Amino acid sequence: MVAAAWPGVDPQWSRELAVPSTSGADEPGTVRNWHILDNGAQLEARGLTPAGTLLCVHGNPTWSYLWRTLLAPGSDPAHPWRVVAVDQLDMGFSERTGTFRRLADRINDLGDLTTALGLDGPVVTVGHDWGGVISLGWALAHQDQLAGVVVTNTAVHQPSTSKIPPALRLALHPAVHQWGTVTSDAFLRVTHSLAHPPLAADIHAAYMAPYRGASRRSGVGNFVADIPVDEFHPSFAALAGVAEGLRGLAVPALMLWGPRDPIFSDRYLKDLIGRLPHAKVHRFEGAGHLVAEDRDIATPVFEWLAAREGSAPTDADLSGAADVLDTSANPAAPETAEFRPLWDLLGEQAAGPAGTGSAVVEMAPDGTAARSLSWQQLDQKILDLAAGLEKAGVQRGSRVSLMVPPGVDLTVALYACLRLGAVVVVADAGLGTKGLSRAVKGATPDFIIGIDKALAAAAALGWPGRRISVGTLPAARRRLLGAETSLAELTRPGAAHAGAQHADAADPDAPAAVLFTSGSTGPAKGVLYTHRQLAAMRDTVASTFGIRAGSNLVAGFAPFALLGPALGAVSVTPAMDVTAPRTLTARALADAARAIDATVVFASPAALRNVVATREDLDEAGLKALARVELLLSAGAPVPEPLLAEVQQLVPAASLHTPYGMTEALPVTDISLEQIREADAETAAGTLHGGGNGVCVGKPVHGARLAIIPLSADGTASGTTPVTDAGVAGEILVSAPHVKDSYDRLWLTQRESAGLPGWHRTGDVGHFDAAGRLWVEGRLAHVVTAPGAAVTPVGAEQAIERLDNVRLAAVTGVGPAGTQAVVAVVETAPPTRTAGPAEPALSASVRAAARTAGVRISAVLAVPAQPTDIRHNAKIDRTRLSRWATRVLAGGRPGKP
């Protein structure tokens, strides 16, 4: 044993000690030799008094080396904690006992060790894999010393209805077990291969060091053999005792998870959350089983410790409530309006004079109305389905993933779930197969309501949740898709009385929905809304845009289709692929408008581009239908003024608005075409202080407040003082009643977004002008850090897109932070055949255009098509372009960006 040879380990931490054993696996009077990593002596030598002890327990087949990243920060004078990382008996560099130690023995062994160490609290346990179960078993047995628990990828319960993970089943197979876990080092190598990215050679060698030779690997094999596969296993009772004991464990808890884990998947995380609902949870997307190797876990652990030090869990901790924004520090925060459930106006419409009129309309591909429901029919179907879902097992708090295209079925299912108190999970196919699968698995729904295609994906990709089909399926198809029932079967007339009890039962501050972001700036994030926040969103839209009972809404964007009934507005989705907005044609838009005599249209910029491109297909009836539109909204990406001008010709009577917002707060600001032109004119004339360099998105919507955290030269916005001064660029902050409650199972991300009490940090960069209007300059993550300056992209992109031969432009950085070269990537019109350096004439015009926005371009590249997000077909992946541009400018083959 040579501690100096272990990368990342201070030799001072390594120590051995003799511990009297009280385990039933040993003879009385037996003393066992343990190896641990312990920074206690180092703290003492530095004169530091630790706030407590982290008791870290590894799983199989790792050892205390797994926790090395916690030991160094634990010795920091800023937050001293004693960190004791143990090598369990028969593992690591601890004694090979020659006895088979069961789960109960190992929990007892850990107690023997802590007694020998004299740990008397406060102690926070940290566990991984089967070490997670053992650490939690110790925690339950030593609650008088316990200050908190941290768990990483582990499991405390194996449902009798499902098999243990395939990798463990294989390791347990009689033909494989001895050879795979003891005779050879296969089990170790397979486990180490689960690291993302792969372990460095010296790290891998350190993990292998204690297990050289079969005689050193008996504990590895015994650990596997001790997995309780059923209730007859000798360790089943001990595991069940830990699992049930957690339900009453009233201490702070932190769960750090790697979802890319073939052993302990998100279903085990969901089980743990159910037992410790007050836990702070963060899923590191892309990380796997060895999450402590894949990601920095020390930072969140010590941040969590700092937040928990010296305090017992609060009522909010123990109720499962997520971290929320504290508006008490903001005396100007808008008052919360009286709560009315999201379906309040829907019910009023059903009971009023409009009850027999259309509420929801579906369009057929041929331009006719395929299905429709009146307000009375819609309300009745919602109540009937709520009763049916309740009978099928959907309860208050159940998560229900809705994978149904906008229309009658989705509207009924959404409002039925909300009235039951279930949490709807909305992750649309616009995320792409991989993105959608990540989102669904991360949300771990209890039920999936979907069309055939969605249920087939659920079956093929292993999505969690009991399955309910939209329509009634033939018996063979039903079995193949695993569908238990259908919406048609659950929505039976005459069941309304059973659902009616839920009509006014919404808890305003209970979770209502998890809506996923577009994934255009990284993996899609689940955004959790309460019933109060959804209702506030409805009220904000109604007050800002005047959409209310009597409005007729064409929704080319799914969220607005679902919001229509809540506003009391008749709603219809055009015949289009809602997961690809650019499929909306002028004819389809006009057909939908004519079907409901539309007064309001909502469509993304990509959809409007195609509407303008296909306007020649409009007939006289279509032109007349569009001429009756009074309000057109477009959001999701910047909308150029020239595009709006062309759209105005199609809807001559409409007021055109481009609200700015995000999944976390929709909407935030609003501006009309006339106001855009006014701001542009003032900027061009040089009469507006602080204007230009970005997209003017107007002023805050009803009930919202905005501020800025100034941007530093290094491209960060690390300040803590919000400002509203004109011309100061920085990260945009928003405070409003309809801002999201939290990010779902992303505790670290939520802390970052809510780091300033009362404010949501949007991650967008912008500034105010002298008239109080907001100008958006891009994403904070996309700021280019050129020498001596931080360059925001949108202003230059807008200037470049004014060129006749440029359709879309993106500005990105190449090179090390602080010395980046500014590169423009343009999608030409007509499209260039191959991607690569732009022609000299195009390059010169792009550089000249960017200079008008104060940006000097170092290189210009051209692409046939920009890499955009699937949902909006408009948000450009600048990070991806940066990697591609780096390769091209280094002389590599351009390929496809």
UniProtKB/TrEMBL annotation:
Keywords: Ligase. Residues 53-295 form the AB hydrolase-1 domain. Residues 368-743 form the AMP-dependent synthetase/ligase domain. Belongs to the ATP-dependent AMP-binding enzyme family. One of its GO terms (biological process) is fatty acid metabolic process. It comes from Pseudarthrobacter equi. Transmembrane segments: none annotated. One of its GO terms (molecular function) is medium-chain fatty acid-CoA ligase activity. It holds the Pfam family AMP-binding. The lineage of its organism: Bacteria, Bacillati, Actinomycetota, Actinomycetes, Micrococcales. This is Acyl-CoA synthetase (AMP-forming)/AMP-acid ligase II. It comes from the Bacteria. PANTHER family: ACYL-COA SYNTHETASE, MEDIUM-CHAIN ACYL-COA LIGASE ACSF2, MITOCHONDRIAL. Signal peptide: none annotated.
